[in-house]
Amino acid sequence: MDEIFDRYRERIPGIFLINLKKEIENRKISKKDLEKILEHLSKVYNESKIQPGESIGVVAAESFGEPATQMTLNVFHFAGVEEMSVSQSLPRLIEIFDARANIKTPMMNIYLKSPYNKDPNKVRKIAGIIKEVKLKEVASRFHINIQKFRVVVVLDKKKMKMFSLDEKEIVKTTSETFKDLNVRLGTNKIILDGVSGNNQFIELYKLKEKAKETMVSGIKNIRQVLPVKSGNEFMILTAGSNLKEIFKIGEIDATRTTTNDIHEIKKVLGIEAGRQAIINEATKVIRDQAIDIDIRHLMLIADVITHLGNIKGITRSGITGEKESVLARASFETPIKHIVNASLIGEEDKLNSVIENVMLNQPVPLGTGLPDLVIKMDGIKK
Predict the structure, then answer these.
(1) Is residue 274 within 8 Å of 306, Cβ to Cβ?
(2) What is the domain extent for residue 359?
(3) DSSP character for 215?
(4) Residue 345 is part of a domain; what is its CATH number?
(5) pLDDT tens digits, 30-43
(6) Closest to 249 (Cα-Cα) out of 131, 134, 129, 133
(7) Tally of structural domains, the chain
(8) From CA 319, how far away is CA 329, in angstroms rounded?
């Protein structure tokens, strides 16, 4: 059997052969039948290849544009928690292809190493460590003592126990945030004083509001955590994302933990991981909408967004602004700006692409317009 597979390695991509091997493992297939299957697979693969001169960009755009008009404009909530909602459908697809730096609903799927992923109590404990806890979440009230010019934070013992925090830890983190102030512990309360400024009443009020948002434990930007069972293991879903800090936790399986923030993936894991994240995220949206789009269109778009080593959205300031041709840039948006700037520096347009040739009523370098005709004539004197 392996000899037959080896003969087709040059003709069929390796991933197809691996998948075929898996399919025939538990089936009784003769060598003759395997030859027929591989011959048919080779034929189908060759027929699915793109012809030279095909306008793949237009085909990819049409393949997305047509089904995307049928997409719903919904945002899907899970667990009935507002903070745990996830952008879906067309808004999410636009977010991915525009390569927006600040996405509406950043979230993470955090997987744990064995044996932590089997014990729900351990999972809950790790979720508690991860969640960003602010001072207002462990306090019953904040009030200003006008007589002594100080802010008093009354702590809630029950809430502190829930987040496994003690008073000393809270005082330590609070004093690190307010280095210029005198932060000390009273009876079930934290006292902040030493406020200076022209108007101490306003400064006290500002301090009270700032104290509420002070982070006392957890990982920054992880606003909500939700331990869930996935298959035969437990994992943690989060609202908010911080991949770099999450990877520092020993119990977390860094090989499977993901975020839906493509820029963060690129920053932490590199541009190739960013490219794969674009494909994965777009595939997820399309699959959820029960739309069938060839993976190669997605791969082409992901390549276009990432081919310069950075993530550039399909916008006028992204890949459109990076186009070599002045006329191609001008045809998208803000034409006067592009033409004036090109005139100032004497930029030259090589007319290598489609748009600029259409504008000048010339044959485009696609399909039959791609090859040049060269005539070789014998017996003619120079």
Answers:
(1) yes
(2) 323-369
(3) E
(4) 1.10.150.390
(5) 888 888 888 898 89
(6) 129
(7) 3
(8) 10
